[in-house]
Write a structure and sequence with these properties.
Layout lengths: L17 E5 L10 H12 L8 H10 L5 H8 L4 H22 L7 H10 L3 E5 L4 H11 L5 E3 L1 H4 L7 H10 L7 E5 L2 H10 L3 E5 L6 H7 L3 E3 L9 H18 L4
Parallel strand pairs: 1-2, 1-4, 2-3, 4-5, 5-6
Helix pairs in contact: 1-2, 1-4, 3-4, 4-6, 5-11, 9-10
C-alpha cells in the first residue's frame, strides 16, 4: 500500500479525542537496542534448553511490542522464576544500553505530541517495558503526555486491548471510536483492533514490515509517526494548533 493511501472515513465518524502511541520503534528510535538487551540477558540468565539462541531471538523479533515478562515466560518454557529473573535482567541491560548509546526520538515525534495536545487531543504512550524503563526513556526525552502505561498498569500487555482501554479510562475519552492507535508491530495493531479503536495506524520505523502490519489489520501504514498529521482525521486540528502556537509567538504591535 502506498504511504499516500489513507482510510476512507464516514462523515459521521466521531472526532479524535485520544491518540495512543507506542514507544520503541514508533516514537523512540530502537536501532536494535531491544535485540542487544536480549543478547545481554541471554548471556546472564540460563533460559533453559527449550529453544536455541537463534530461535529465541526470532521469537523476540516476532513478539516485539508485547509484555517482556510474557516473552520471557515463553522463552523459559513456563518456568516463572527464570522468566522473572530474565525480565529483570532485560530491564537492567536495556538501561545500560540507554546509558551507553543515548535515547533518540523518531524525527518529528515530539513535535507531533505537542501539536496533538495543543489541539485538545489527549496523548498516551504505551510500551511492553516495565515502568522503570518506560519512565527512564520518558525522562530522557522530556516529553509531556497525558499518561504513560506499561502492562502492569493495565492488566495484560499487547496484543490484548487492555493498554488502549486503560488509556481511554485514564483520559476520559468518550468512546473507543474516538481513539487512534499507532504502532510499529503487529501486536500494536492487534491491540488496537481488539479494543475497537476508530483508527489503527502502522508505521514502518520499527520492527515489522508494511505487509505484516496490514495483515494484522492496520487501517493504514505510514512511513513514520510524523506523517500522522497528514491523515484527514487530524490534519485540520493540527494545522489549527500550529497556527495558534505560531501566532502566540508574534509580538503585539
Amino acid at each position: 500500500m502506498s504511504t499516500d493511501t489513507t482510510p476512507s472515513v464516514p462523515s459521521a465518524a466521531p472526532a479524535v479525542e485520544l491518540v495512543v502511541l507506542d514507544m520503541a520503534g514508533t516514537t523512540v528510535v530502537d536501532d536494535g537496542i531491544v535485540e542487544q538487551a536480549f543478547a545481554r540477558t541471554a548471556d546472564r540468565v540460563d533460559l533453559g534448553p527449550t529453544l536455541t539462541r537463534d530461535e529465541a531471538l526470532q521469537h523476540v523479533r516476532d513478539t516485539m511490542g508485547q509484555s517482556k515478562i510474557d516473552v520471557f515466560r515463553h522463552l523459559a518454557g513456563g518456568d516463572e522464576q527464570v522468566a522473572q529473573r530474565a525480565a529483570g535482567q532485560f530491564e537492567v541491560a536495556y538501561g545500560e544500553l540507554v546509558d551507553e548509546l543515548g535515547v533518540d526520538p523518531i524525527e518529528g515525534a515530539g513535535e507531533l505530541i505537542d501539536a496533538l495536545r495543543a489541539s485538545g487531543i489527549s496523548v498516551v504512550l504505551t510500551t511492553g517495558f516495565a515502568p522503570a524503563t518506560r519512565d527512564r526513556l520518558l525522562d530522557a526525552l522530556g516529553w509531556q503526555v497525558d499518561a504513560a502505561l506499561s502492562p502492569v498498569d493495565a492488566g495484560r500487555g499487547r496484543p490484548a486491548p487492555d493498554l488502549v482501554l486503560t488509556a481511554l479510562l485514564r483520559t476520559g475519552a468518550s468512546s473507543v471510536a474516538s481513539v487512534v492507535v499507532v504502532g510499529d508491530t503487529a501486536s500494536d495493531v492487534l491491540s488496537g483492533r481488539a479494543a475497537g479503536a476508530g483508527l489503527v495506524v502502522g508505521v514502518t520505523t520499527g520492527a515489522h514490515t508494511r505487509e505484516k502490519l496490514l495483515a494484522a489489520g492496520a487501517d493504514v501504514v505510514l512511513d513514520s509517526v510524523r506523517d500522522l498529521a497528514r491523515l484527514p482525521q487530524l490534519a485540520g486540528l493540527l494545522a489549527t494548533a500550529t497556527a495558534t502556537a505560531t501566532a502566540s509567538l508574534v509580538p503585539a504591535s
